[in-house]
Amino acid sequence: MRPSRRLDLIPPYLFAQLERKIAEKKAAGVDVISLGIGDPDTPTYAPIVSAMQAAVADPGTHQYPSNRGRAEFREAVAAFYARRFGVTLDPDTEVMPAIGAKECIFNLNLAFLDPEDVALASDPGYPVYTGGPTLVGARAVLMPLVPSLGFAPDLDAISAQDAARAKLMFLNYPNNPTGAVVPDGLFERVVAFAREHDVLVVHDNAYSETTYDGYVAPSFLAAPGAKEVGVEVFSLSKGYNMTGWRCAFIAGNAEAIAQYWRLKSNVDSGLFEAVQLAGVAALDPSVDAEVAAMNEVYKRRRDLVCDALRAAGVDVTPPKGTIYVWAPVPAGYESAAAYCEHVLEEAGVVISPGGAYGASGEGFFRISLTTPDERLLEAVERIKQLG
Ligand SMILES: *Cc1c(COP(=O)(O)O)cnc(C)c1O
């Protein structure tokens, strides 16, 4: 068997190697605590589960969905964007369901990139921003997120040649893995850049509902002119504890969404309609209280982790959003990977090396907050004792 060259160009999946190591440790009797993957540990909120139960019992949801999505879903998205972000969306042309944000972002690469094209990818970033362009035979150009700029990319540092070839730009705030929220004025600068260079901006919004300390995350689409140059991919996975459900949508530029639709009609057959109806329930204002309660849990965990890291001499800034703490690797380790390996070996705790999210993540590590408090506390105590 001969896999494609493009598949061979993709680096091995970040957690595959790690999973093997964890299995070895567990087999050797070590009580491993994993703070690696970001996957909410508490159940999907009850009203969403109830809506799904009712929807799944209705034969009206059992046939092929249309890629365009049910009217109720598109209308619920439009109502949510209006109430939550002050953004007006036409449910007929400016909203479509997606089978998770990952599917959507990958397929946007297929819909927009030819081999000579470039996608500008936030670095560090979600792996599909670089794997997607590579898999479709195009090229990702990394945009380092600069800590001193609040983890904004320096748009002036993008070369004229790369800017000319760029057709997509991937951004994500609140940001995985850095926990950064969007720096003031960035979305506006991005709109101007996209206009000048004819780039479609893809804002990956996986964390706008997961924020702390009174911070309210904006939608990219609320920036003036954003809808002319961009789309937002909104995932219900993290904010609504729905990672397994595969429920997301794309919103914004109607022409871009029409191309995504054209592509998808050749690739998949849409999002299960019962899941769409569960999504309608999730976006209802009555679920806001559940989201707020979940954020209280994450905030407590965030503080517990940050306090312990500070006590261990790590200079960490508590994030205002996301389910991650991003912290600099203590002095004396040759790389983030070396530090994370040390923590696994000596403390039996899995944390992610920043370099796994891109070259600019080197020197940092990421802790996910999706572990129950007691286990999280136990893990950070062990790390603290390592010194
Ligand atoms: C978790 C995550 C996703 C995945 O979203 P799905 O809807 O589950 O595919 C996308 N982007 C970022 C930045 C994420 O952290």
Task: Describe the overall structure.
By secondary structure, the protein is α/β, with parallel strands linked by helices. The protein has two domains: 5-43 and 289-385, Aspartate Aminotransferase, domain 1 (Alpha-Beta Complex); 46-286, 3-Layer(aba) Sandwich (Aspartate Aminotransferase, domain 2). It has helices spanning 5-8, 14-27, 46-56, 71-85, 101-112, 128-135, 160-165, 186-197, 226-229, 254-264, 273-282, 288-311, 336-347, 373-386; strands spanning 33-34, 95-98, 118-123, 139-146, 152-153, 166-171, 200-205, 230-235, 248-252, 324-328, 349-350, 352-353, 364-368. Strands 2-9-8-7-6-3-4-5 form an eight-stranded mixed β-sheet, with helices on both faces. A three-stranded antiparallel β-sheet has the order 10-13-12, covered by helices on one side. Strands 1-11 form a two-stranded parallel sheet. α3 packs antiparallel against α11, α4 packs parallel to α11 and α12 (288-311) packs parallel to α14 (373-386). The model has no long low-confidence stretch (mean pLDDT 96). It binds pyridoxal-5'-phosphate. The site of pyridoxal-5'-phosphate has 13 residues, from α5.
